[in-house]
Structure formats: structure tokens, C-alpha cells
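In this supplementary section we document a worked example of the pipeline. Step one takes a protein sequence of length 220 as its only input; no multiple sequence alignment statistics are reported here. Step two produces a three-dimensional model, which step three serialises into C-alpha cells for compact storage. The input and output of this example are shown verbatim.
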Amino acid sequence: MSIDGLSERLGGSGYAVFDVDTRRLVEREGGELALELMGKAKVIERGLGRVLDWAEKVGAAELVTTCLTTMQACEDGEVIQEGGDLCHMPMGVSAERVDEWVGGRRFVVGRPCEGCRDEKISKRYFDAFAHHQGLARLIERIDAKCWVVMGASFDICLRVTAEGLVRLGQEVVVLEDVTLPSPRSTEESMRETKEKLREMGVRWMGVDAFFEEMQMGAVK
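The serialised model returned by step three reads:
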């Protein structure tokens, strides 16, 4: 399959999903890769599951950021691991390697998360775009008309994800009721985050409203 074929296959539904830090990558017996819901995400499990079931049904691409140890994030840096439709793309995977590779529907993008919380903040470990060489290229090649963003750390990890997508020229919808605050969140920081992203062109919706508008053709 050509790169154009990748775009047609994964962007053909018009949508792609970006799930921020609600699941962890695990390796089952036999080496099969799988995603496991993290305990903190149980409170949004219903909405999360609804969106992920829909993405699978329509064949939409699904990007998942997750915290890994530094060793896990960096090992086999040029090797894209594949298991069914799930692919682990380590930090060292270059844009060139993304161009050469066209498998999968779900892509796990790991970030190093060792160290104390202050170190994670100072080194921007929360920003997948800052630490993953091939992420921008993968988003370009998927070529979705709209990215549906949901997940954890509302005013840190989720915020920089939405900002990164906008910087790449993507249309972004955040499903507000499928998000979680960060440990540092306050009402003020969350309000400021929402206002800043809205000024950048990000739309905020509830999951019910998103599906209703999509059925009506109002979500482009």
C-alpha cells in the first residue's frame, strides 16, 4: 500500500481520534501488544469507550499517547512494533521511517516519564510533539479532516496536544466530558486553557452533541 493509500484508508472517514494518556501499552503472552485502561480514566470509561467503538467501526485512525519509562520509550528507537492493528512508535522513529511504513490503525506514541513531577514539567515530557520525531509526519499522512481529542491532564498534556494539532493546520474538537484534570488543575487554569484553545479555533463539545452534530453533517 502506498502512502497515499494510508491517507485514504485512515483519513477516509474524515475523522481521527487523539487519546491523551488514558491507557497504557502492555505486552501479553506471545508478545501481543494491547492497550489497558488506566485507573484514573475509569470515571470517563463510558464516554471513552463510546468514541473508541465508533472509531473502530468507521476505520478512523487512533493516536494514543502514554507514559513510558525512559528505557521503554527509547528502546528500538527506529523499530515500529506491530500487533494486529496496534503499532508502537518509539520516540526515535523518524519522519522518513513513517513515510516507509503504512500498517495499522492505532498508533501508540510513548513519552519518557521517569523523574519527579517538576522534572517532567521542566523537560516538557508531557508534550508528545516535543519528544517524538515522527509524530507530525504521521498526522500529515493520516490527513484527517478533523481530530477528536479526549483524555487526561486537561490543562497540560491535553492542552499541548490540541495546540500541536492546530499548529499543524488541523481542525480540532475536544470532547469536554471525556477529559480529566491534571493533579495541578484549578478552576482558573482549566478556564484559561479552554479560552486559549477556543481562541486558536478549537471547538469544545460534549460527546452526545458531537455524535448528534456528526449525524446531521454539522461536524466537518
